[in-house]
Amino acid sequence: MGRAQTVADRKASIINATITVIHDRGYSEATMAQIAKKAGVSTGLPHHYFGSKALLLNATMVKLLKDLAMQVKSRMLPLTDPKQRIRAIVQGSFSAEQFRPEVISAWLAFYVQARTETETRRLLRVYHGRLISNLIHEFTGVMPRAKAVKAARSTAALIDGLWLQMALAGDHPDPKEASETALDHVELVLQAQPATEDV
Asked: Where would a tag sit more exposed on the chain, N or C end, judged by fewer CB atoms within 10 A?
């Protein structure tokens, strides 16, 4: 158990170091040696555990995707009303944790690498698919499924678009403003739904 914990700790340290080094140097300039040094491990360990820089980025994004899922889930857990749960998904997507400068840098590298790396692209599709699926599930609680699908897709696209705008806005993004804009969209979608329509 002790050895397993040590391996888990080392992997976590390497992933955290990856986030920091990508932020400091950019993904293209980051090296496995720099990441190892930042993590305080031997130079060969990142290669030993992850294989390549691209695979290490994927492992880093798996960690960040899990963090995001947990942040959203914690907001949704105490809620039962679909409208409130939709708002919780939006607010979780713009949480302060998602707008730490280091996390922004890692996400931007993730988007860029998804254009050329098959596994990275798959992970991005998993994220998008999960976001849309969660939104469809909640919107279906207040409108017919066909409309719920459209509402979910437009909301997911707005979340991604606003996140990118905020991420590229400079050193001081305003996630609260982005969240409020996305929530305004959700409110318009919900208000357009006739209260008497059979769902």
From this structure: N
